[in-house]
Amino acid sequence: MAKKRKRILFFVAFISVFLVETLIALYVRGFVRNYMGDVLAVAAVYFFLRVFIPNGCRLLPLYVFLFAVGVEITQYFHLANLLGLQNNRVISTILGGVFDWVDILCYGIGCLIIFITSMICKKINRAGGRHEI
Predict the structure, then answer these.
(1) Which end of the chain has fewer CB atoms within 10 angstroms, the N or the C?
(2) pLDDT in tens, 2-60
């Protein structure tokens, strides 16, 4: 598959997941928002990065996980407050406000799903199929 086509597909995947995340944030409560939202958040970051790295990077799910954990750690230290940006809605939304170990678990599950899916797609692609993630 040509790089340009891959970039477009990853961009469409990113926008799709981002829209689902936005709808979850605005309209859904409970299990889906608390847990599935975090699983989908790492998928959104992964697809966004794949726009710029269309041929992939085997460790990209790990890097996405580490990034997500880093953001979660900033919540533990209330980075937005330390920087005086607690009233900035965009920054507060991106950084979040409450540290939670369960969020880190959800990020790990999301990245594990991404890793397994990408490995399966690569095997299918090597076997002559056209699927790739």
Answers:
(1) N
(2) 889 999 999 999 999 999 998 998 899 999 988 999 999 999 999 999 999 988 889 99
Average pLDDT of the chain?
90
Non-local (6+) Cβ contacts of 51 within 8 A are 7, 10, 11, 14
Q: Which tokens is 93 given?
A: 């939304």
Domain residue spans in the chain? 3-126
Alpha-carbon dihedral 48, 43, 6, 127, rounded to 10 degrees: 150
The Cα 110–Cα 106 span in angstroms is: 6
Round to whole Å and give the CA distance between 120 and 95. 32
For every residue of 59-82, DSSP letters joined together read THHHHHHHHHHHHHHHHHTTHHHH
CB-based contact 131:125 (threshold 8 Å): yes
Count CA atoms within 13 Å of residue 7 on its CB side. Answer: 6
